[in-house]
Amino acid sequence: MRKRIVAVILALAMSVSMMACGAKSDSKQENTATTKEVDSMGFDELKKEAKGSTVTFYGWGGDDKLNDWLDNSFAPIMKEKYDITMERVPMDIDQILSQLSGELGDKNASEDNGDIDIIWINGENFQSAKEKDMLYGPFTDKLPNFNDYVDGDSEDVKLDFAYPTDGYEAPYGKAQVVMVADTAVTPDLPTSAEELKAFVQKYPGKVTYPALPDFTGSAFVRNIIYEICGYEQFLTMEADKETVKEAIEPAMEYLRELNPYLWNQGKTFPDSSTTLDNMFADGEVVLYMTYGAYDTAVNIADGKYTETTQSFQFDKGTIGNTNFMAIAKNSANKAGAMVAINEMLSPEVQADRYDQLKVIPVLDNTKLSDDQKAEFDKVDLGKGTIPQDELLSKRLPEMPAQLVPIIEEIWNEEVVGK
User: Fold this and answer.
1) Are the C-beta atoms of residues 26 and 57 closer than 8 Å to each other?
2) Same domain, 180 and 278
3) What is 150-173 written as a DSSP string?
4) Rg of the chain's alpha carbons, rounded to an integer?
5) Which domain holds residue 140?
6) Alpha carbon separation from 38 to 33, 34, 75, 114, 137 (Å, rounded)
7) CA–CA separation, 229 vs 238, rounded Å?
């Protein structure tokens, strides 16, 4: 009797296990078009193919406002308009690419059955992924909204950290470095590297920046390099450590001179831009820097920053870049991914992102109708921000992606604790 009961339990367990495996297999096969079939489809066919499917969106999950917008604004649009379910998967980009590499390296896996569909990506991560043949494309020419509303010939779109996108990425949002201070605490805001040095000396122990390779800390250091060394030479510079080291030495010397006056005397640096943001909000430091050009307004509105907080730039400008959406080479739902990316590029969605998240839009204003322009024009950017025309007039290009890790390595060797 006991053996019979055990046998029944084992049979039930196997049945449940097979049902679970079958469910997983079914979900993976909800979109059955192969890459070759998708390549030959027009956009209407892509929408038909994607109907009823699920699209996974992999990207950094540390921005609560963005997460909320993706889940509660964008996802409902996709469900209502296309019957597509959006599944957001929060993950750091290095983990995403590691997972993708593992999937692509599995000889037993289908080339069209991967877990990852859309990837939020840019810079050296995109270059690495594209050169390792981890991405699907080109695909942007298949997207009506890209063709109708994006300037595909602009350097912000055709280049990603000076590396050609070649249609393997669609723009998601624009970013630009700004610095942030409370004018009630520090009324004189520095407008150059030399003024920043005087500012740091005036407020000893109250200024720092995130440790590289933090994305924002790295951008801040590159901005100092541009200020002191100029930027033109780096746009075509060979990715050779000694060449780069010689070119940036004046900026490294400048940063070493700052160290004695920085928080913790420059012996250590905050581990992330999030940590530095909290230090600034708590008054532990008097300066913050961010790629989020309009973050100040959002934080003032949320009560995190004081009403007297202000964003500012150096007179020579600050680095700006575009972040993108790519599609995994083995995506199980390339059709759905393209429909979702196309919708992200619609004037309505871009205007809503601009309004709700204060993200610089990626559309070409000259391609918009008067009514569409009005939707962007009526957005209130809030307090403490730099007017968009002024911000973009001081926008400097990013360095080639291959120079960034070299500079980060040199900074760690030549600046930290010196």
Assistant:
1) no
2) yes
3) S-TTSHHHHEETTEE-TTS-EEEE
4) 24
5) 36-173+322-377
6) 6, 6, 23, 15, 11
7) 16
- 28 domain residue, yes or no: no
User: How many domains is the chain built from?
Assistant: 2
Q: 301 and 390, same structural domain?
A: yes
Q: Is residue 10 part of a domain?
A: no
Looking at the structure, do residues 273 and 237 belong to the same domain, yes or no? Answer: yes
Residue 217 lies in a domain: yes
pLDDT by residue for the chain (418 residues), tens only, comes to 333 433 433 343 333 333 333 333 344 445 568 888 999 999 999 999 999 999 999 999 988 899 999 999 999 999 999 999 999 999 999 999 999 999 998 877 667 889 999 999 999 999 999 999 999 999 999 999 999 999 999 999 999 999 999 999 999 999 999 999 999 999 999 999 999 999 999 999 999 999 999 999 999 999 999 999 999 999 999 999 999 999 999 999 999 999 999 999 999 999 999 999 999 999 999 999 999 999 999 999 999 999 999 999 999 999 999 999 999 999 999 999 999 999 999 999 999 999 999 999 999 999 999 999 999 999 999 999 999 889 999 999 999 999 999 999 999 999 997 7
Q: Let me know if residue 69 belongs to a domain.
A: yes
The encoded tokens of residue 111 equal 């080339």
**Residues 197 and 161 both lie in one domain:** no
Strands 318-327 and 395-396: parallel
pTM for this entry: 0.84
Conformational region of residue 194, where left means phi above 0, alpha means psi within -120 to 50, and beta covers everything else? alpha
The CATH number assigned to the domain holding 304 equals 3.40.190.10
Q: Which of 342, 334, 332, 340 is nearest to 30 (CA)?
A: 332
Tell me how long the chain is.
418
Inter-residue contact 38 to 139 (CB < 8 Å): no
Shared domain for 366 and 396, answered yes or no, is: no
